[in-house]
Amino acid sequence: MHTFKSDYIVFSAPSGAGKTTIVKELLSKYPDELALSISATTRPMRSFEEDGKDYFFLTNDEFTKAIQEQKFLEFEEVHGNYYGTLIDKVDFQVKIGKVVLFDIDVKGAESIKQKYPDAILIFIKPPDKETLRDRLVKRKSETEETISLRLKRLDFEYEQARFFDYTIINNSLEKAVQDVEEVIIVK
Ligand code: 5GP
Predict the structure, then answer these.
(1) Is the CB–ligand 1 distance for residue 37 below 6 Å?
(2) Buried-exposed string 98-116: b where 16+ CB fall within 10 A, e elsewhere
């Protein structure tokens, strides 16, 4: 078993920076110790996604109801859709002894830090903007319009990186995962 430096480890990045791949790799390396916080969203499901595994896909009405019932630790509008972290899901994982990984936007990350000051915030940067654009185009689930929406948010996101505990550049998956391990695991 490994000892982690916090029960709450938050990853944010411009979309296409490879954050989700890094998070998935960590989950598969430490399946008994780590768990993913599965968010709720109003974004349409992508063809390769599964409800309850990638997200809980909600209608706008369902999402609004969950806000009113105070089910969210935090929620934000990102790229025109709502995304939120479900309190119950996070509490349950911590209760059973898991370290929770969050894959959320920069504003959500700051909210988590306010609620859990010992949370570790990690900002993942792509090597450069061109690589980012290429990755978004290759993803094929994005249209020109959503790609440009996502790229427009980039400057804001980079600006927010200064609130994070660590910035890790994702040149290669293996190295990025090593860099993350360095800052989250007690040696
Ligand atoms: P995508 O649509 O590519 O899955 O996610 C778009 C953005 O929303 C990403 O930056 C992702 O990390 C963020 N996101 C996903 N879930 C949550 C959440 O629960 N809260 C917040 N604040 N952002 C989220």
Answers:
(1) no
(2) bbbbbbbbbbbbbbbbeeb
